[in-house]
Design goal:
Elements lengths: L1 E5 L3 E2 L5 E8 L8 E8 L6 E7 L4 E3 L7 E6 L4 E6 L8 E9 L4 E5 L3 E5 L2
Parallel strand pairs: 2-11
Antiparallel strand pairs: 1-3, 3-8, 4-5, 4-9, 5-6, 7-8, 9-10, 9-11
C-alpha cells in the first residue's frame, strides 16, 4: 500500500487548506481500514486531525472539528482534507495515514507534505 499527499505548499491566512491523498495497492472502501490525516508543526509532536472510515463515516479531533472536513472519491481511490480559516499555527507537515481497525495500528504513511500558512 502506498499513500501520496498532494496540494499547495503555501496557503494565505483565513483561506482554506486543501490536500488530497492518493492511495494505491489497496481500496479505501475495504473493511476495516480508516484513512486519516495527521500533522506535525515545526518543533512539536504529531497531532491527529481526523479520519474517514471504509464506510464513509468521519470523525474529527475536537480541537479542530469546527474547521475540518474529510471527504473521499472512491472512483479515484482518494481522500481529502479541508481545513478552513487557517492561521500561521496551522503550518505543519501533513501526513495521510492508514489505520488498521482491528489492531488500531497506523501501518502505512505518506511521505508528508509541508504546508506553510503565510501572507
Amino acid at each position: 500500500v502506498q499513500l501520496q499527499e498532494s496540494g499547495p505548499g503555501l496557503v494565505k491566512p483565513s483561506q482554506t487548506l486543501s490536500l488530497t491523498c492518493t492511495v494505491s495497492g489497496g481500496s479505501i472502501t475495504t473493511n476495516y481500514y480508516y484513512w486519516s490525516w495527521i500533522r506535525q508543526p515545526p518543533g512539536k509532536g504529531l497531532e491527529w486531525i481526523g479520519y474517514i472510515a471504509y464506510s464513509g463515516s468521519t470523525f474529527y479531533s475536537p480541537s479542530l472539528k469546527s474547521r475540518t472536513s474529510i471527504s473521499r472519491d472512491t472512483s479515484n481511490n482518494q481522500f481529502s482534507l479541508q481545513l478552513s480559516s487557517v492561521t500561521p499555527e496551522d503550518t505543519a507537515v501533513y501526513y495521510c495515514v492508514r489505520i488498521e481497525g482491528w489492531l488500531e495500528e497506523y501501518d502505512y504513511w505518506g511521505q508528508g507534505t509541508q504546508v506553510t500558512v503565510s501572507s
